[in-house]
Amino acid sequence: MKSSALRHVLTHLITPLLMCIGMGLAYMGAFVTPEPHHMPVAVVGAGPEAKVFAQTVKETAGDKLDVRTVTSRADAVELVKDRHVTGAYVPSAHEPELIVASAASDMGATAVEKVFTPVAAHQGAPLKVTDIAKPVSDDPTGQGLFFLLIAVSIGSYASVAAIGAAGATLAVRVRALIAVGTAAVVGGIGALLAGPVFHLAHHDLGTLWAMAWLYSAGILLIGVGLHTFLKRWTTLAMMVLFVMLNFTSSGGLFRPELQNGFFGTLHAFWNGAGFVEGIRSLLYFGDDGIARNVWTLVAWLVVGIAVTGIAALWERPARRTPAEVPAAQDTPAAEAEREAEEETEETVAV
User: What is the pLDDT of residue 76?
Assistant: First the structure.
């Protein structure tokens, strides 16, 4: 009996230990050594002299920068606003200028400033930094959206454990409806946190709520579907998908050009990146690029609908009437074990 209980405990320790390894690899791999990787920048100027200057900057920086030239400062400003470049340098013998948008990435703006400060010093003039899109004063680093992502994500994937374990006897369609309703509540909490509570968003709270709902519903439906197949291992799967890979590739702390290629690639299509970049577009860049981010969230929602649909088909032949269920399943021991399993799953999720 003691051997069985010990084996039961050790089995349940596998999940948190794997989480420990996964979180360490993901977070330390993504965040410990941020440095530019092909960071896109622009140099303003026309003619051979500007091209030679840009090429010199590129050769000095190596793979850290991708340098292009534009003919006017106005063109450079548009590139920065559209987030096609992290910064644009305007050479001058008297007042060289660097144009950035810290709302897009405070870390990115800092990194590009470090690159061009010695360039300006070499020209014998101090660097003037012009920030054309600053975060709101309540979120001076612009990283509040990353922590909003964390709050909405936790509300979503932790709810999967509750719905999957406590609602195991319900039909998949009922669990899916509960998930959709839960996503609306999670999105509402996110909108309240971003608006009235911490003042990250001063406008378009309705749209922010809708995007939070899209994001949360995708996670919840994927989780509800996966629970049919993975049971207590669903929590680990959700942590891998929506914490380890999601937070690290979201661009909330470091844009992809400050990370290695793996996380930079995930940023192009992962749902956390769609949420963070979509909210940035909404709040700071006049909705520029928001359509693509919304479609990213819609795609993940469609995946969630597909997974729950497959789960419903899988469960249908296995679902039996109460009269067909063996009486042994209702014994106190079986009930206690089931409750312990539910408690373990929900505790690990939180």
Answer: 94
Q: What is the pLDDT of residue 325?
A: 45
Burial per residue of 212-221, b for 16 or more beta-carbon CB atoms within 10 angstroms, e otherwise: bbbbbbbbbb
Token pair for 90: 């305007």
Terminal-to-terminal C-alpha distance of the chain: 30
Q: What is the largest CA-CA distance in the chain?
A: 88
φ, ψ dihedrals at 267, nearest 5°: -60, -25
Query: Cβ–Cβ contacts within 10 Å for residue 144, how many?
Result: 21
CB 115 within 8 Å of CB 86? no
Q: How far is 10 from 31, CA to CA, in rounded Å?
A: 31
Q: Give me the percent of the chain exceeding a pLDDT of 90.
A: 57
Neighbours of 1 (CB within 10 A): 5
Q: What is the pLDDT of residue 176?
A: 95
The token pair that represents 289 in the structure block? 């690029």
Read off the tokens for 147: 């922590």
* Contact between residue 143 and residue 173 where contact means Cβ atoms under 8 Å apart: no
Low-confidence ranges of the chain (pLDDT < 50): 321-328, 336, 340, 343
Residues β-bridged to residue 70 = 44
Query: What's the pLDDT at 331?
Result: 58
The SS3 assignment for 90 reads strand
Tokens of 134: 């600053």
SS3 content of the chain, % helix, strand, coil (to 5): 70, 5, 25
Which of 155, 123, 150 is closest to 57 using CA atoms? 123
Measured CA to CA, the distance from residue 156 to residue 171 in angstroms comes to 20
Show the beta-strand stretches assigned E in the chain. 39-44, 65-70, 87-90, 97-100, 128-131
pLDDT in the model for residue 335: 55
Tokens of 127: 């660097």
For 164-203, the DSSP string reads HHHTTTS-HHHHHHHHHHHHHHHHHHHHHIIIIIT-S-SS
Instruction: Specify the pLDDT at position 132.
Output: 94
Residue 287 in contact with residue 200, Cβ under 8 Å? no
